[in-house]
Fold:
Amino acid sequence: MNFLDFARICEQLEGKSGRLEMIGIISRVLPDLADDELPVFVRFVMGRIFPDWSPEKLGIGPSLLYEGVAYVAGKRKDDVVSVVNRTGDVGKAVEELLAAKEQTSFFSEELNLLDVWRELSAIAGTSGNKSQKEKLRIVRKLFSNARPLEGRYLARIMLEDLRIGVGEGNVREAVARAFSVDSRLVEHAFQALNDLGQVALLAKAGEQHLRDVNIQLFHPVRMMLAQQGTIEGAIADNGAVAAEFKYDGSRFQFHRKGKVFRLYSRKLEDITEALPDITELLINATDHDLIIDGEAVAMKDGRPMPFQSVLRRFRRKYGIDTLREEIRMVPNVFDLLYLDGETLIDRSLSDRRAKLEEVMKDRVAPQVVSDDPSVINRMYQDALLAGHEGIMLKVPGSHYTPGVRGKNWIKVKPEVDTLDLAVIGADWGEGKRAHLFGSFLLACQDNEGLVPLSKVATGFSDEQLQEIYALQKDKVISQEGKEVRFEPGMVFEVGYSEIQVSPNYESGFALRFPRFIRIRDDKSVDEIETLDGIRDRYTRQSK
Ligand code: AMP
Structure:
């Protein structure tokens, strides 16, 4: 497929808002793609480049992209930035710049979908001190061969934000329709493989191939997530529940085959090197090939240390040996997804748990199964006394559903008024903070997009503002006056006193007295508060 054809399809999708129409357009394209094009198309159309399980990152920030475009368009980087500010969209800005250039030059090469993919993979593969230069060289090359419309989507793919409103749900349906297979099978295969590109290939090969999927070792699976609830509610709905402590640490997934092992974070990043104490304890606790799910906590004198300590360990790249003396991490294992060649996510929790206890000598989180609220309540009090966050209540007959925040896992913890929100913009600070961002624009999730909800300007120490500046300065997409917009990625946990109805933000709500609590770099933007959740909280609070 020519990249121009891909760009035209994106343009067509960008103009549509109806879900069915979008599914129709995509499903008509898929059957005509060659086997090597199909997974690439499927990922690109969602604004992704690599499989979701893959730790590969493109590593192009807006700044490098602007530099590349400036060179090709014969402009200065500042000129590119002003076009981005005027259009409010990197894609449209690149399109405009390339159109102005087009009148004066010829194209040297036609771009096709696979070439683009290969070049982007090459960018991700660069490393070492020459890597910026090499990335820039490839970016220039791609843009110099791109027509204006191609430039629009190429730029957006490079920033992994295609802005055509095509999400996983639409693509799953389109795959099912294109190859006449049951969409539940597509969803299930996606949960196991964590790559819709690969799933599309299996769907093309036939339904049986989707049925036969197995989780792959070293391809991390999305984590199953929990909903908030109460002990009484969970027992009324399910009868007996399996209760475990809710540890205040960070999620991990551990894969092991023989002597080879890897540890992944909640965002599926490879964190093996940062946590040798966790991997040692896990390796020693079992001889089996397996994939386990658990929570890593920092312990001191038998009590959990604050979450901040856990984050220091998860983030640390150097000096790990010294830090591991200061902050000792231990794993609490609570689930088993794969054992000695067999995928277990479709077994009941009680089955998985029985196997887990069989194959792991220790490190398994204690569990109590009961339908008696007083028994579970006692466990809840014990959890809080021991310094944990609360308890998790799980439905014993339930499957492991990767990436799903359903009713089969219920978290019970003391009500705290904090929200996890995406940081989508900022204002420059004032006075001695003029060179840093001072206040931040926060958004929640609504269907396929992020909607602004509030600003937060208090609760930051100088060090925190400096840290945030360092992390975000290359994520600026556009600037107007004192306001900048970021490529979404960073998540803040913020406290507030009340949710108010407000015409000032697109969400229709605003936070009263918002204050910064911490960066949640263990969470991705997909996991932040939803607009439905905000509405819910608003209703509960009004009562
Ligand atoms: P939350 O981050 O508030 O949505 O709560 C869900 C998180 O609690 C999970 O993603 C885990 O990181 C963590 N957690 C702690 N203990 C457990 C447990 N026993 N079972 C499942 N998740 C747990």
